[in-house]
Amino acid sequence: MARKIAKCRLCRREGVKLFLKGSRCFSPKCPLEKKGAVPPGVHGVKSSFRKSEYSFQLREKQKAKRLYGVRERQFKNYYQKVADADNRGEELLRQLEVRLDNVVYRLGFAPSRSAARQLVRHGHIWVGDQRVKIPSYQIKVGDKVVLAKKAAQIPYITAWLKGDYKTPPWLKRKVNQGEVIRLPKREEMPPEIDESLIVEFYSR
Q1: What's the CATH code, domain 99-182?
Q2: Where are the alpha helices (DSSP H) in the chain?
């Protein structure tokens, strides 16, 4: 079983906000706002280890894996799925973007990907006329994603839905229903990830 690590420590380790804790990430309570991008642990920035190319590649892979909340084997499977594509890095990110839990998050139905994953697992999300409980379910262009009325009554979800959330251009949302109108372009996916380093990591 994978070891659980506090979400804020993951952001500090990668040096960027991974938006793992919803509204807290946008508030002054975020550790990156208070402490800066200082790695966790007693050594922090004082570490004298020399960084290699491999270390940069590994950190980029870890950053992407933690951002989307997938396990090591899952992440590797996604890469193998796009290994023959012309632009493997971009296709890898696209595969991660069209996961059901990520689409639920991108539509603004949940404050974080982990919250979106919980909604999916508890049966609060419908794709078309079918209830889907698999967070890794791959959404296709034209699919309609619906948030159940019962889920919209959960206090923290209700509060989040009332907020000013901007849906990305590749998605269309109307109240508690969203639709994938096209696949995301590179500029519409996380800019903090350098996918070329991930490709180099798996090409060793």
Answers
A1: 3.10.290.10
A2: 7-14, 31-35, 53-68, 72-81, 88-97, 100-106, 113-121, 149-152, 155-161, 195-202
